[in-house]
Amino acid sequence: MAAMLEFTLTPQAAYKAIIQPAFSDLTPDPFPFRGSLNEFTLFDDVMTKRTIVDLRRVGNISTRRDASCEYIYKKVMNATTRFVEVGEAYAATRLCLNAFYQGALKDIRNGDPLFRKNVLPFFQSAINQDLATNGYFGDIKRAVPSTNLYSTNIFNGVFHWIKFYIGAGIIASSGANQQAFTIADGTDFTATGGPAAAYALLTTMYNSQNVLMYNMMDSEKAFYVSKEIKKAYEQYLITAGLTAQGYTLITNGISQLSFMGIPVIEEPIWTSVISEIKGAKGYAAVLTLRSNFVFAFNKNYGGGANLDQALQIFYDDLTDQWYWRYYYTAGTQVALPEHLIVAMSAWT
Amino acid sequence: MPQAIDNTNVKFLSNATPSVAGFLPVVGYVYDASAATIVVTDGSTIPSGDTLVKVLVHVWDKYSKSVEGAITVTSTPGAQTLDVSGLNRAKPLDILCTVITTKNLVADGGAYNIQAAGNVGDWDVQEEA
Description:
The complex is a heterodimer of chains A (348) and B (129). Chain A is 25% helix and 26% strand.
C-alpha cells in the first residue's frame, strides 16, 4: 500500500499556522517559539527575487514656479539594485514507532496516546528556530556538521549581508565614518570589567551614527545585542546607582532596557549560535532602524503531487515509519545598510 | 447710488510696486551639444538703486537628474559654463532660473526643451519679503 497521507496543509494554511505567528508582535499564548523575529519586515509572497524599494519618505520634490505651464517631474521612488532573494528548502523528520517504543517505553506501547501527535508542535518550533538561526547567521558557504544544534547554512542571513556590505565599503570599518567595529576574541562581558566594557561599546556605537540616522526618532531605532552585553549594561546601571529602567515585552517575555532613549533588545539565541559556529564565545551588537532586516518568504510555495501542499504528515507501510515534511522558501536582506552600526566577534 | 470699490488691497498687489515694474529679467543660454556644456549669461534690467545678487540656474534632464550653477555678476563677465555631460540627453533638457536682487525682487523662469541657443522666458516676477 502506498504512503498514507494523514494530514496535509496547503502552503497558505501552513504559513498562517506555523510561520506567521512567529513573526507577529503578539505571539499567541501556547505558541512554542519565542524569539525576536517580530523585528523583521516580512515579505510573504516573494517567488524568487524582489527588489527592495526605499519606502522611507522621500523629500526634496518642490520647485519654484515660473510663469509657464511647464513642470519638472521628479522621480519619487527608485527600485534599487538591492533585492531580496529566496532559496528553496525543506524540513523533514521521520519516526520509526517500533524503534521508539523500546526499553522502558515498551510497556506503554499499546496504551499510550501516541507520541507522534506531539511531533507537530515540536516541528513548528523547530522550523521557526531554523528560520531564526538562518535568518541571522545563515551562510550557504558554511560547512555545518549535522550534529550541530543550530542550522546555519540553509539560506543567507542578515549577518552575511552585513559582512557583505562591510566588504563593499557601504558600512565603513575604519576611518572617520566607522560603523563596523570588532569585539576582540576573549572579551568577557561577565567578568569584572564587563559592565564598563558593555557601556563603552554601546556608547561608541551610539556616537558612530551618521547625521541622518542620528536625527531619526529614537523609538524607530534599536540596539540588538547578545544577552551578555545587555546583562552587563544592566549591571553597569545598577552599580552606577541608576534604576535599570527597563520593561518586559508582554509579547515574547523578553525584558529590555534602553540606552539614551533607544531600546536595547536582547537576542536570546545569538550567543549560543555564534559560539557553536565559532567554536569559542562570541558576541554581537547591532544598532539600526527597526524593521531594517527583511525576511522574504513565499507563502504559495508547496510540494506534493500538485505542488500545493506545504506540510505533509504521512505514514509509509513499506518503511513502517511516520514522516513529516515541510517545504518552504526563505531569504533575508538588509534594507538600509548605511543606517546600521555593528560590533561583532570574528566568525566565518 | 455709486459705490466705491474697496481698493485698500490694491497697494499690496505685486505689480503695483514701481520697483517690480522696472525689473526685466533676461537670461540667455547657449547649448553646445557636442561639448556637453551650457553657457548661461545674465542680461537682466534692474531698476536703479538695486543690484543683482544671484541667478540660480538648474538644468534638468527628463529623467530627474540635474546640474546646478549660479551667476553672481551680470553680462558676459559673469557667464557660467555648466557641464551637462552627466545628464541623459536622449530627450531635450530644461533650464530653470531664479533671478534675485538686493532689494528682494525675485523672478522665476524656465526654458523647456532647449535648442542650441535662446533666452529663458515665462518669468514670474514678485517681491519676496
